[in-house]
Each structure stands twice: as C-alpha cells, then as structure tokens.
Specification:
The chain is mainly beta.
Length: about 700
C-alpha cells in the first residue's frame, strides 16, 4: 500500500476525453497499472504470468480482498465487469466483485458466486452482514476451472446483476450507499482464483481546462531530494527559500520531515529534522507562517512532544534556536473519520482549508474552510466549500496561494487524466462561500497516475508538486514553471527590520496592516527578537496603512498604496520606534486632507482614533499638534493652512472627550521641511501633521 500523509491509497486511471461511455478502468492484466496490491504475504500468494492474475488462499478460512481505487459517480449509470474462474479449493469457497467502499471504511458491498452454482449479494459493516439476496442457485454459473463473467450494471434507479450475460438479480440503487471508490476481487475461504480482466465503465463530462499553448516546464528535483523512498507533501516557504517535505522509508514507511534550503538557485541536500517535529509516527508540515516563524503540522502531539496522540493539527513556533513542542490547534466541532488529515494555512494565518470526511460529505474527503477567532483562541467549525469544489470522489491536498483566493487541490471526482489530478479554483467572494468551476491544470502537469500536493511561493515563478511521472511509478517531488493563466494573482512581499530610533538596536514589536479608509485589519506580524526582522505579504487592490506598537515606544504610522495591480515585487521598509519621552515626536503619515483644504478625510480616522486611545491611556500627557506644508506657494498662506489643519486635528480629538487644555497646536507652514522637496514623493513627505509630547 502507498502511504500519502496518513496512509493515503493511490491508483491510476486511463485517459478519457468526451461525455460518452468511457472505460474508467480497462484492466486485462497484460500490464497491470491500476494500483493493484499484488505483493504476496501470509494472507495470499499472487502469481502473474503476463496474461492473467492468480490469487491463491489455500488453507485460509476468512474473507479477503485485493483492491484498487476508481472514482465511480454513484448517481450516474455505471458498469463493472470481471472475468474470473476458480482454480483451487472446494465448493465452500466463494469469489466475486467488491465495490463502493473506502479503504478506511467498515462498509463493503459484494457480489459473489461459488462452484456449487450459487450466488449472493450482500453488504457488511464491521461484523454485521446485510444480505440483499440469500444464496441463490443459478444455472448460469459455470463450474470450477471455467470462466465466469460477473457484471454489476446501474441503470437509472436500479442496479442489475448478471452472470455470464444472464441477469440474476436486481436491487434499488438507494440500497447501496457508496463510501468510496475502493473496488476489486473478494475471496471467502480456502480458494484460489484466476482473473482475465476487470473493467469499469461510466459516462464522464469533458475535462475543464484552459486553452493555452504555452509550453510548460516540469522537472524532477535532484537526487538529494528524491530518493528510492517516497517523497511527499512538499511545502515551500513564501519567500521561496525553504522547502519542507515528508519522506517515507523503512519497513513501516514512517513519515519524517526533511528540510532543504535554496542556495544559488539550487536546493541543497536536505536535513532530517529532529525533536520535536519528528516522532515515531507520521509527521508532516502543512503550512508555514509568512515570516517562517511558525509551522502547522498534521496530528496532535503529547505534552512532552515524544509521540502523536490523535488525528488533527498542531502549531510549533521557532524560539531562539529550536522549534517549540507542537500545541494542538483547537477547531470547534472537528470531525474527521478519514485516515488522512490535510490542510492549508492562509497567508494571514487566520484561515485554513481542510480536507476531511465528516459524515456530511459529497463523497469521500471534501474541502472545508475554518477561520480563527482571536478572542476565544480557537478555530471555527469547518464549513464546506460547496458542490462546485466537492465532488462524489476524494478532494485532498489543498493549497491556498499567497493571494488568499486561488485554491489548488487534488480530486478524483472532477474529470481528469487519471487517478488524482490537480485543479485550480478562485474565490469569488470575500468569505469563501462562492468558488469558480475547478480548472484541470492539464496533461503536461497531470499524469494517468497520482498527482497532488501543489505549493507555490509568493513570487509564483515555480510551483512544486508530487507525481508518479516516471516509469518507476515512484512518488517524487517535481517543480513546474506555470503559464500566467495558471498562476495566482501577484502579491507584494514587504520585509525589513524594526529598530530603536536612538540606538538602532533590534526590537520585537507588533506590526499591523489595515485597509484604508475604513481601517479594517488585514494582516499583522511580530518582528524577530534577535535581529528585528519581519516579513509579510499583501495582495494588490488596496491602500494600506500600517503601524507598529511596543510598550514604552511611540507608535509609528505610515502607508503604502497598492491599489494599482502590478507584478510581484519585494519592498524593504525599516521601521524606527522612538522611546516614549518628553520631546519625542511622531509624524501622522496616515492623516489626509482635501487638496488645499483642512477638511479631514475618512482615511484619517483609524490613525486619529489610535492617537485618542493613546491619550486616554496616559491621562496626564500633553501634546502639540504641528502642521507642515511643502515649500511651494505663499509662505503666509501655507502657514495659515498648516495652522487650520492642526486645529482640525485637535477638534477631532477633543470631540472624542480628550480635554482641550492637553492639546496645543501650531502651524509651521514650510519652515521645517524634512526633504529638499525636489520630487513629488519628497514634497508629499513635507506635507504632514506631527505630534510632539510636551509632558508625560
């Protein structure tokens, strides 16, 4: 069995292109490629001669199955057919077709026959058996050593069962509740069988993909990354400099986290991470904070970090020179009956897209959205992304790109080129209720085998993924250069340091970004204590104000206008905080006036409201509001305008309940420029309002 995160089953499927009856699977066993598990062990001996598959269970008495996985839409007509003969054993043994279950599900459906000439249709749930028919005699069944063709054919509201083209039974479609796409042969008791072919047919809609002629580049990462073991679940940091992935090796295929760094545009040999990220269980990185300070992990950890405790998620934080013991991520009403637990953390760290099986799914695992609620330090109950995204099949490996609205995920239910294909959808609203029709990324990315775990750094130049693209059918990590139409929207990466304005020493301070004019919080980050560095990502389309806060320092304010969409860019802005003392002053960079006017614009309110809260926190503090203009124009008129603007700011503060005597004002006109004023940018810096602390 192949292990994807928590034992994730894999299979393949042939190419199909039109809305006609197609072979979802056409297996004649001349070259089996559908993910069958043909490894002999104590339960069964397999033999393959290039024409037929033989399974021998001599001297066994229990029930046994060999499976692959095909996503059959249970609501549409389908046909399953297999040509099987009994080669060993007596009349008590039986064999047939198993379908409609999940590899982790306790529910199975079976259509079996025996050499005494009887058939039975039944389902099982754990130890409970529900018989749709008791053992029934049928003259259509051929004796041991002869082929029997078994057919299960859903047409409309009825499922018909045939033996050697003779219908023997039918049951209502509503009686068979699909749990998944596991399908294969089932054997009961001391028996051996030989299988000539196994086919699955169903109508499928056309593949929804973009008509692009751009040539894609898809290449396997070097051997230092990809080994004979399975490499899974790559997660690249937003700055594109760190790659985390899971490697499954050893007899138990335990999954351990490895990390590689980008050096001179090449991925360095990876290092296996130690305690507490790797335990004796299955370990995976699911998400990375924009500043690389936190990792979201699969599963929950014991308090000492030495073992995994349950299905779910955990968060670890970089502290000094090590990762902290992961702490459980609390998600309200969290239910997941699947063996897989996958998620993607948004660029803000306030949303997650999860792949879960909750009992309310469209099919197997579906995709859900959960949002962080700061005042209760918990995540909301997962809310489905809806039927546009979620199909009757399995949706897994979600990745929400840096723009916060482009979602990549793997699905077997949407029309594709094989087993699991990678799709892209875009959020159409601000809350994640509406999504565009998923687009298949195309045959140059998706293969007839398993494809998934798509991840893209903020610059969007290269995407990383897992695929079985080579002849060895080994799960390895690839990178893909995407055409523009398959990329997320461009974003801006802002980085820098927060420093003491006097000593230039690094400070650990909180930095907030909000959209103007309403002042709605968009994102925040805390600078690194050791060097004061910070890193944050913002999408285009908004005018942002930002401010930094730290106890004992004046809050610094500024803004950045990203309303005009451009290409990806990186902006460096160092922030200097002045210690809180008499004589300290701060420029109110996010206070705006009409052209040549002292009317305060709405975009100024968030910054002025923060100044009001600051004055309320220190009831004895007195300040001076100073107005300044650029050098152009009449000095007298500039002085009058700057005084009017300072008075307008004072009036705004006083009307909020701050005593008038605590605020003085002065219009300096153009007498105190901070730049030469030769460019529009410099002139804008001279047109400012400042406040100075007169007394504390």
């Amino acid at each position: 069995m192949k292990y994807f995160l928590l034992l994730f089953l894999c299979c393949t499927s042939p190419l199909f292109l039109s809305a006609q009856t197609n072979y979802l699977m056409q297996e004649d066993f001349t070259s089996p490629t559908y993910g069958w598990q043909f490894k002999s062990d104590s339960n069964a001996h397999y033999h393959y001669d290039g024409q037929r598959l033989s399974i021998d269970r001599s001297n066994k008495t229990d029930r046994f199955g060999t499976y692959t996985h095909i996503a059959i839409d249970p609501k549409s007509d389908y046909k399953i057919e297999a040509l099987i003969k009994q080669t060993q054993g007596e009349f008590k043994g039986s064999y047939g077709i198993h379908w409609g279950s999940h590899f982790s599900s306790k529910s199975t459906f079976s259509f079996i026959i025996n050499s005494s000439g009887s058939y039975k249709i039944y389902s099982s749930w754990g130890q409970k058996i529900k018989e749709f028919t008791l053992w029934q005699k049928s003259a259509a069944i051929r004796e041991k050593g002869q082929d029997n063709k078994l057919t299960i054919h859903k047409r409309g509201e009825t499922i018909f069962f045939s033996i050697n083209e003779q219908e023997v039974a039918q049951i209502p479609e509503s009686k068979v509740h699909f749990q998944g796409g596991r399908i294969g042969m089932v054997l009961n008791g001391d028996i051996g069988i030989s299988v000539d072919y196994f086919n699955v047919l169903q109508d499928k809609p056309p593949i929804n993909q973009l008509d692009t002629k751009a040539k894609l580049i898809k290449e396997k990462l070097p051997k230092s990354i990809n080994t004979k073991a399975q490499e899974l679940n790559p997660i690249v940091s937003y700055d594109g400099k760190n790659l985390y992935f899971t490697r499954s090796e050893g007899d138990d295929l335990a999954q351990e986290i490895w990390q590689s760094t980008l050096e001179d545009d090449q991925w360095a040999p990876p290092v296996k991470l130690g305690f507490p990220l790797n335990t004796p269980g299955h370990n995976n990185v699911m998400g990375i904070a924009t500043d690389n300070s936190k990792l979201l992990l699969s599963n929950t950890y014991s308090k000492d970090g030495l073992s995994l405790t349950s299905n779910g998620y955990s968060m670890t934080e970089w502290q000094d020179d090590h990762w902290s013991i992961p702490e459980k991520v609390k998600i309200s009403s969290y239910i997941n009956s699947s063996n897989t637990a996958e998620t993607s953390l948004s660029v803000t760290g306030k949303s997650m897209v999860l792949s879960l099986k909750t009992g309310y799914n469209e099919g197997l695992n579906d995709l859900y959205l959960s949002n962080y609620t700061s005042y209760i330090h918990s995540w909301s109950g997962p809310r489905t992304l809806g039927k546009v995204i979620n199909s009757f099949g399995n949706e897994s490996a979600p990745f929400l790109a840096a723009d916060g609205k482009t979602l990549y995920f793997s699905s077997e239910g949407h029309s594709g080129y094989g087993d699991m294909d990678i799709f892209m959808s875009r959020m159409l609203d601000d809350e994640g209720y509406e999504w565009s029709e998923p687009i298949n990324l195309g045959s140059e990315i998706n293969t007839p085998n398993w494809d998934g775990y798509f991840t893209i750094p903020a610059h969007g130049n290269w995407a990383y993924m897992v695929s079985e693209s080579d002849s060895a059918a080994q799960l390895d990590i690839y990178r893909v250069k995407l055409p523009e139409e398959l990329k997320p929207d461009p974003v801006v990466l802002i980085k820098g340091r927060i420093l003491d304005a006097n000593t230039k020493e690094p400070l650990q301070a909180q930095l907030y970004f909000e959209s103007l004019p309403k002042g709605r919080r968009q994102n925040s980050v805390r600078s690194n204590a050791s060097d004061g560095s910070y890193q944050i990502i913002l999408p285009y389309g908004k005018h942002y104000g930002y401010y930094s806060q730290l106890e004992g320092y004046l809050s610094t304010h500024d803004n950045i206008d990203l309303q005009q969409k451009e290409n990806y860019q990186e902006i460096t802005r160092d922030i200097y905080l002045s210690p809180l003392s008499e004589g300290s002053f701060i420029s109110l960079n996010n206070v705006y006036f009409g052209q040549g006017s002292y009317e305060i614009l709405e975009a100024s309110h968030p910054e002025l409201d923060r100044l009001i809260r600051f004055m309320r926190s220190s009831e004895t503090m007195e300040i001076e509001i100073g107005g300044h203009t650029e050098r152009r124009g009449s000095a007298r008129l500039n002085r009058i305008l700057s005084q009017d603007r300072a008075d307008a700011v004072k009036a705004y503060i006083v009307q909020a309940g701050i005593k008038e005597k605590r605020i003085k004002t002065k219009g300096y006109g153009s007498s105190k420029p901070v730049t030469d004023g030769k460019t529009e940018k410099e002139r804008k810096q001279n047109r400012r309002v400042e406040y100075t602390i007169l007394s504390l």
